[in-house]
Amino acid sequence: MLYRVAPLALIAIALPATAQEQKPEREPLRTRVYIGPQLSPKTPGAKDLSFGPFFEVSRARGDDPFEFEAPDESFGFPVVKAGGVEFGPALGFKGKRKATDIGIPLHEVGFSFEIGGFAQTYLARNIRVRAEARQAVSGHDGLVGELSADYIARDGDKWLVSIGPRVTLADARYHRAWYGITAADSAASGLAQFNPDGGIEGVGLAAGYLRQLNKRIGISAYARYDHLVGDAGRSPYVRSAGSRSQPSVGLALSYTFGGQ
Q1: Do β-strands 80-82 and 127-136 pair in parallel, antiparallel, or remain unpaired?
Q2: Residues in the chain where the model's pLDDT stays below 50
Q3: Which residue in 40, 190, 236, 252 could disulfide with 248, CB within 3.0 to 4.6 Å?
Q4: For residue 207, which of 52, 72, 51 has the smallest C-alpha distance?
Q5: What is the DSSP string of 170-204?
Q6: Which residues, 6 or more positions from 258, have their beta carbon under 8 angstroms from its beta carbon?
Q7: In this structure, what are the phi and psi dihedrals at residue 77, rounded to the nearest 5 degrees?
Q8: CB-CB contact of 227 with 202 (8 Å)
Q9: Could you tell me the pTM of the whole model?
Q10: Per-residue pLDDT tens for 127-161?
């Protein structure tokens, strides 16, 4: 709309030089978006892998490096910081499970949308620890959580490598949805009935890698391995048709918007 340009230009010319030379109060915002594919178990406990989206968004101001985010953590962002600890929301989801997905006639689990929060802090400059909990409002309807720690090596935004342990926990409702065998399941599949309790679902290790190829374009990759333990690992479904090994890998390209 060219008719708006001329009046604005005249106003700008009329402003004192000192006003035009003033720097903005805040540095310009940069936004980095990662998108690509990932391979992960079709459903918890499944032996087959399926493709899904690997997506992440990060923001930073000016020349400040982007804050570290583990590639396998739930979507969320810090909103409160107190005493060196950051708190924020955490969102997660798990796809639905049908008998055809796992090759055995067990009960269906609907799409699960999980809402919760996290707390994280740095024990040292390169060591971050994080805890999160999410309650499903659909699907499995259970409570799931994760404890994680990451060692981080980086050169600003040029490259970053992270690695650290993972422990996943869940309540009985979650475990019964994914690993339980009801009477109807037993009759249809021939597996023994199984009514698991809550506790540790799995232990694992995750690693991530980021590299900026130029000012705008970058790459990201991650790998994670979890081993089911406790009642999850003892499930007749996991033992007969699933797997205690739960690997995941992802690869993405990034593009950075904004900045100078």
Answers
A1: unpaired
A2: 1-21, 23
A3: 40
A4: 72
A5: E-HHHHHHHH-B-HHHHHHH-PPPB---SEEEEEE
A6: 28, 29, 30, 31
A7: -160, 145
A8: yes
A9: 0.84
A10: 999 999 999 999 999 999 999 999 999 999 999 99
